[in-house]
Amino acid sequence: MARDRNEVVVEVKGLRNSFGEQVIHDGLDLQVRRGEILGVVGGSGTGKSVLMRSIIGLQTPDAGEITVFGQPTIGRDETEATDIRKRWGVLFQGGALFSTLTVAENVQVPIKEFYRHLPAALIDEIAAYKVVMTGLPADAGPKYPAELSGGMKKRAGLARALALDPELLFLDEPTAGLDPIGAAAFDELIRQLSRTLGLTVFLITHDLDTLYAICDRVAVLAEKKVIAVGTIDELIATDHPWIQEYFEGPRGRAAASTREFGDPASADAQADRHPTEVRTNAADAPSQGGSADNHARDAAETQTGTR
Ligand SMILES: Nc1ncnc2c1ncn2[C@@H]1O[C@H](COP(=O)(O)OP(=O)(O)OP(=O)(O)O)[C@@H](O)[C@H]1O
């Protein structure tokens, strides 16, 4: 049965997060719709990763409501939380693979966690399929992360995120650290997978090329909330200074010109837009909190949470 592309898959209402005196989010609202690739941007330290961690249950907010697939995620008992978690995959910043496991074993971690009674041969087969699905050569399965290039590590992390056939994919800066060709290839992979598998994608990025190439809508974090959501053209039409500087500055213009000169991926993305809504509020520039040790933190989370 065809799925309603206006269905809200993730809904965040009135989110508040703080660390001691530092308030990260206050009154943050956001919706992610079925089948869209939603880019999430904002200055460093504006709380993009904390938002993602709140949605996936790694961060307990001070206040607010979060529903995923129509079900509240805060305060659920373990069984209910597990049932929801099975339906999403996460690629953390840096890939966060277990360094002592091979690629195939990394991909098997969530399968064994959630479906421990599956026969070993079937788990092997599923993992091998996911490895190939992300464009890795079949012989990458027995390799350790240290033997892989940066781009291959990202693909291995993506294979693990896809292990359970998720409907919803969270990606935290997936192209960070990749060369432009590798980044464009990874963008294309995400776009293809999202189309083929009907995935909904929540994608944190600083990469303007990624936004133009594959995102249906973009949410801008600033001033402790989501100050605007819409297509890039709609965002550019707003007069918020950070949005203007971001999209109309030299790097933004360079990324836009790539689109204008016929990048096929972005042309498709533009042609298949969802109905959009643009909201903006106060015109102040966003706060620029420092964000230390994100990579170490994500790796630590992966050690405990597998995704
Ligand atoms: N566990 C934590 N304890 C204390 N402060 C934290 C914690 N997690 C995040 N922060 C702080 O919250 C703020 C937002 O962090 P977050 O990692 O979400 O930012 P970000 O927008 O993803 O930044 P970047 O673009 O640099 O990755 C930062 O100031 C960060 O230092």
UniProtKB/TrEMBL annotation:
<keyword id="KW-0547">Nucleotide-binding</keyword>
<feature type="region of interest" description="Disordered">
    <location>
        <begin position="254"/>
        <end position="307"/>
    </location>
</feature>
<protein>
    <submittedName>
        <fullName>ABC transporter ATP-binding protein</fullName>
    </submittedName>
</protein>
<dbReference type="InterPro" id="IPR003593">
    <property type="entry name" value="AAA+_ATPase"/>
</dbReference>
<dbReference type="GO" id="GO:0005524">
    <property type="term" value="F:ATP binding"/>
</dbReference>
<keyword id="KW-0067">ATP-binding</keyword>
<dbReference type="InterPro" id="IPR017871">
    <property type="entry name" value="ABC_transporter-like_CS"/>
</dbReference>
<dbReference type="InterPro" id="IPR027417">
    <property type="entry name" value="P-loop_NTPase"/>
</dbReference>
<dbReference type="InterPro" id="IPR003439">
    <property type="entry name" value="ABC_transporter-like_ATP-bd"/>
</dbReference>
<keyword id="KW-0813">Transport</keyword>
<feature type="domain" description="ABC transporter">
    <location>
        <begin position="10"/>
        <end position="248"/>
    </location>
</feature>
<dbReference type="Pfam" id="PF00005">
    <property type="entry name" value="ABC_tran"/>
</dbReference>
